[in-house]
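Model the whole thing, not chain by chain.
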Amino acid sequence: MNNRFGFSRFAAVLKCDLVEHRWRYICVFFIMFVALLGCQLMHINEIIEWSSLRGTDSSLFMHRLAENCTAFFYVVLMFALICAAADMSSVSFKTKGRALNYLVMPASKLEKFLSRAFINIVLVIVMAYVALFLADLVRMLCVPFFEADGFYGFTVHQIFVNLFDPFKAVFENGSTTNAVIVNDEVLTPVWSFGMCFMAVVCIVLSGLWSHSVFLLGGCIWRKGALLKTIASAMIISLLVLWLLVNIAPSIDVWAENRLAPWLEQRFETEEDLLRVGFPIVAFLNLAFVVFNWWLAYRLFSRKQMIPRTHLFGSKHPHHLFNKAHS
Amino acid sequence: MLKISELAFSYSGNGCKVFNDFSLSIEKGAVYGLLGLNGTGKSTLLYLLTGLLRPQQGSVLYKGEDVQKRLPSTLSDMFIVPEEFELPKMSIKRYAALHSGFYPRFSYEQLQKNLAMFGLDDTVVFNNLSMGQQKKAYMCFALATNTSLLVMDEPTNGLDIPSKSEFRRLIASNMSDDKTIIISTHQVRDIDSLLDHIVIIDGSQVLLNASSDEICRRLLFTEQPISEPTDGALFVQPSVAGNSVILPNEFDEESRLNLELLFNGVLAERDKFIALFNA
């Protein structure tokens, strides 16, 4: 028997999880649907008013609605992803009975972890888009009540396309902000494609890093992981801030006397600096993401029926790094 | 089949060890009765056997594999019915359809047969059943998985009187040479006829680990009038008829194993019994 990973077993674990906790997922879906529908309906009146003030026709209604709902959709999606990540172990380990059922299920630790991660990430994203699609349909049913014909259409398509807007903006800004204009003519230097790409990679990785922090919190705590993770992050941030404030004068001196001359000597232009800076930031973000996922998996796979410690699921945290116990 | 070596375990919070340097071997093809006082770690031992808890020291090997690894090959060959459990809100049939795939030797016919013995139907939803009925349904599923090792913690708790005899019949009808069942219980009268092997523990020590045949070969369980002398008895316990007595079985006499008397005797006169069975 393959004890590492088998797709049929992974699918079976996934199916069990989905069926046994279906009401929970339906509830999450319903909340997202209501929030997105509410947002769309609330914006209809506002857009009609905006249109009458500007004298625009109804052909712009859908574009305006999608624009207005995009930010809200991403807030809903981000919040759902964060909550779901923090929920990694609460569904299966909240009570002794649930933990027992889950731990004795004949599937590997990797299959169980990946199935939970799949539900808490992929499924949540799919649910958000389906909820938006349904909200679109219901909004179209409600349009006759508003007497505004321009609201027939789907926002889901435009919002999906808008997903790439921040990245497009990076490319656009990157290729103009550094431009040198001589005699009304745009000359180089501009950010190269590679630089723009690295900037986008940095943005994506910092998002993944934030998400992985909540995933890690979800694997440490069985109950109230979201609030505990936020509280821990706040405490750590405050400590770092306090540390920085305390050592700021010495950093200032060091930066002025040592770092600045060194940077000036090494990097002649801002682009030179960013060419090195972006990969470093990207690498650090990636390292944090990989570390958080690795630690989350270790903590998840070492969970016991009854929590026996305060933080790391074991009285002996060094066991986390012990391969013999993996 | 199952080998526990130098096990040490304690729960965080209270520093005292539930197990310390504890070793035990379980062979296949027998129904084991795990007995002990409250708080001696019977349930904890069952959780350690099935990999639900991790010992601080020592190991539990099931067919040569460390149960701590919780490998699918190990988990699909063992099943635990805990004293308290939580079942999802779905019918037995649906539960079986979802979970049977994990157990290669699962038999749906056997499940239906087992359920029929308790007068249950597979269309009924777990949450619509009483706790005792849920336990019966869960035990029926556990036996239908046909795993080599079945662990049960207080299986007769919450069962009505007719169900207790049905339970004995169920275990007997599902037992085979390649299966091992470990039953931890305080209700010894409910299962004494089922047990092939008795293990009495007190945390750090195995006080008794012997087959029922061996116990009956070495010990004589008898009832005596109060006037009769009890010289040479290993243990005497007053009873309604006079005295319940455990004597060394010097003349290979036959007697019926009195599990309650044996348990009390082993706890009261542990050195005598340990010496007798280690001789």
